[in-house]
C-alpha cells in the first residue's frame, strides 16, 4: 500500500485525474447516459428515421412555439437588464449597510423554490387576488385578465431570474477602480457622457454575463410558463412535457429537447468565443 502511494506521489500528473474520477463517473451515469438515450429516442421513436426532426423544421406549431420561446426569453432578459442594472448601480454606490440590505433582499429569492414563488404569483394575480381587488377599488369595473397570460408568466420569470442579472452586474461593478472614474471626470467627462463612454463599457462584461445566463435559463423554463402562462403561447419546455405526458410521443419530445439543447450550446459557444465560459459566473 505504501509503495503504491509512493509511486502515485512520483507521478503527480495522475492526481488530478484520480480526483476527477468520481465526478466523471457521476456525470457519465446520471447525465451522459440519459442524454444519449434521449438522442437515440429522437431518431428511433416510433421508428428509425428523421421524421421527428422534419416535423420540427416544417411544422407550423413547432416553429411558432420555438419563436415564442425565444421572444419570451428575449423579453425576460431585457426586462431583467432594465431592472437589474439600476439596482446593481444603487447597491454599488450605497453605503455598505444599505448595499448589504439590498443584497439580502435580492438573494432571499434563492431561498424559496420556483414552485412556491410561482404559486405566490398565482395568488397575487388571480381574479380574487389583491391586485384585481385594488384595481376594482380604484374604480375599474372590468379589471383585465392577469392570470394565464403572457404578462403573468413573464412577470414571474423576471422575478425569478432578475437576481442572476443583478449579481452578475454588481460583481463587475465592484471591481471597477474608482480612479478610472475620477480620471475621466478630470478630463471633462460628466453625466451621461461619463456613463456612456466610461462606466457602461466597464460594466459590459457583467451585462453580457447576466444576459446570457438569464436567456439560457429562460429557454428551459417549464413550471412557471405552464402554471401562469396562456395555453396559446406556451414555451418549448411546456410543449415537450405535453407531448410526453399527453400523447406518450417520446420521440417527438426527445427531438425537441435535442434541438433546444443544440441551440443552447450554440449560444454558449458564441459566448465562449467572445468572453470565455469561465467569466460567466463573474
Question: How would you briefly describe this protein structure?
Answer:
The chain has 282 residues and is an all-alpha fold.
Describe the structure in your own words:
The two termini are 43 Å apart. The chain has 13 helices and no strands. Helix 2 crosses helix 13 (250-274), helix 4 (60-92) crosses helix 10 (191-219) and helix 10 (191-219) runs antiparallel to helix 13 (250-274). It is globular, with a radius of gyration of 24 Å. It has 282 residues and is mostly helical. Helices cover 78% and strands 0% of the residues. The model has no long low-confidence stretch (mean pLDDT 87). It folds into two domains: 1-44, no CATH class; 59-279, MetI-like (MetI-like fold), CATH 1.10.3720.
Q: CATH H-level name of the largest domain... which superfamily?
A: MetI-like
CATH domain topology of the largest domain: MetI-like fold
- Supply the number of helical segments: 13
Strand percent estimate: under 5%
Summarize this structure as a short list of keywords or feature phrases.
282 residues, mainly alpha, MetI-like fold, 78% helix, 0% strand
Write the SSE topology.
Layout (H helix, E strand, L loop, with lengths): L1 H9 L3 H31 L6 H8 L1 H33 L3 H12 L6 H12 L4 H8 L12 H25 L3 H9 L4 H29 L3 H6 L7 H12 L2 H25 L8
Helix pairs in contact: 2-13, 3-4, 4-8, 4-10, 8-10, 10-13, 12-13
Amino acid at each position: 500500500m505504501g509503495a503504491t502511494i509512493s509511486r502515485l506521489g512520483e507521478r503527480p500528473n495522475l492526481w488530478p485525474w484520480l480526483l476527477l474520477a468520481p465526478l466523471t463517473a457521476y456525470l457519465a451515469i446520471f447525465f451522459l447516459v440519459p442524454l444519449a438515450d434521449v438522442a437515440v429516442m429522437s431518431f428511433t421513436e416510433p421508428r428509425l428515421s428523421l421524421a421527428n426532426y422534419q416535423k420540427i423544421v416544417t411544422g407550423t406549431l413547432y416553429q411558432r412555439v420555438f419563436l415564442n420561446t425565444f421572444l419570451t426569453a428575449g423579453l425576460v432578459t431585457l426586462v431583467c437588464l432594465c431592472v437589474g442594472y439600476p439596482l446593481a448601480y444603487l447597491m454599488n454606490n450605497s453605503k455598505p449597510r444599505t448595499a448589504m440590505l439590498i443584497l439580502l433582499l435580492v438573494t432571499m429569492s434563492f431561498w424559496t423554490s420556483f414552485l412556491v414563488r410561482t404559486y405566490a404569483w398565482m395568488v397575487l394575480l388571480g381574479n380574487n387576488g389583491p391586485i384585481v381587488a385594488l384595481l376594482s377599488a380604484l374604480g375599474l369595473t372590468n379589471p383585465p385578465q392577469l392570470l394565464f397570460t403572457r404578462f403573468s408568466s413573464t412577470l414571474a420569470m423576471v422575478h425569478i431570474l432578475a437576481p442572476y442579472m443583478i449579481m452578475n452586474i454588481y460583481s463587475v461593478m465592484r471591481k471597477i477602480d474608482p480612479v478610472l472614474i475620477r480620471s475621466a471626470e478630470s478630463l471633462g467627462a460628466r453625466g451621461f457622457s461619463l456613463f456612456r463612454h466610461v462606466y457602461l463599457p466597464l460594466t459590459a462584461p457583467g451585462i453580457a454575463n447576466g444576459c446570457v445566463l438569464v436567456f439560457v435559463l429562460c429557454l428551459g423554463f417549464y413550471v412557471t410558463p405552464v402554471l401562469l402562462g396562456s395555453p396559446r403561447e406556451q414555451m418549448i419546455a411546456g410543449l415537450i412535457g405535453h407531448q410526453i405526458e399527453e400523447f406518450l410521443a417520446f420521440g417527438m419530445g426527445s427531438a425537441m429537447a435535442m434541438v433546444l439543447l443544440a441551440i443552447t450550446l450554440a449560444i454558449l459557444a458564441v459566448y465562449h468565443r467572445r468572453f470565455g465560459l469561465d467569466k460567466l459566473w463573474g
